[in-house]
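Entry 14. Ran structure prediction on the chain below.
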Amino acid sequence: MSLPKFIVGMMFALAIVIGWSYFDGASLGTIIMRAVICAVIIQAGYFLLVYAMIVRSTPATADKPREAERGVKVADGEKLTARRGSLR
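Output, structure tokens:
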């Protein structure tokens, strides 16, 4: 999930909590407390989601993305040099 989508979703969730609290007849202090608690819980969940995505991802070597961009197929352990594919 991208950050802008997260922020929009968080604002909608906070608006719902604030609206629910207002129509429930809660005091201003209670409304603010509920909104802050909701924001903290949502932020913690987003942090844990991003952390889990980072932990699950496999590290890639620096050469693999560059090779994929070029469309060059290189066997594991083989290094690219300037002379590869030349006529000399």
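The chain has a mean pLDDT of 81. Will compare against last week's run tomorrow.
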